[in-house]
Amino acid sequence: MKIAIIFPRLSGPYGGEKILIETSNELARRGHKITLYVYEYNKICGDYLDANIRVVKCRAFKFRRHNLDTFLAYLAMPYLAQKIGRDHDLILGMTWQSALALWWLCKIRRFRLIPLVYHCFEPPRFLYDLQTVTGNSALAR
Questions:
Q1: Is 83 helix (H, G, I), strand (E, B) or coil?
Q2: How far apart are CA 120 and CA 8, in angstroms?
Q3: Within a domain: residue 138?
């Protein structure tokens, strides 16, 4: 089976990225052809990926501010979706940003015969991390 996985920010081998790496490696080990579509790619992740896994990168906008970069990754999803061909048997969107890419594939590019699967680890931090608490100020409330 040819599987496309959309994972916008493959920034290092930790957290959700580690789950992606382990999932991709297991699918490749089982004989599936895996292509990762990413917006951000840290080359160190390549050391952990199976040699048969292909990585397709989209142009990245980096401001070195986590919340801003995460939001911009969402806006870049239509560009990333344009790189995905119709030769896949399944398209898996991982993380919340990939929802826009899947919507784009379904509604704009009319991918009707390819199953689209969405999986999200957690909601975007910029929606709930709106206040920075330092020191013991949280205890004073």
A1: coil
A2: 12
A3: no
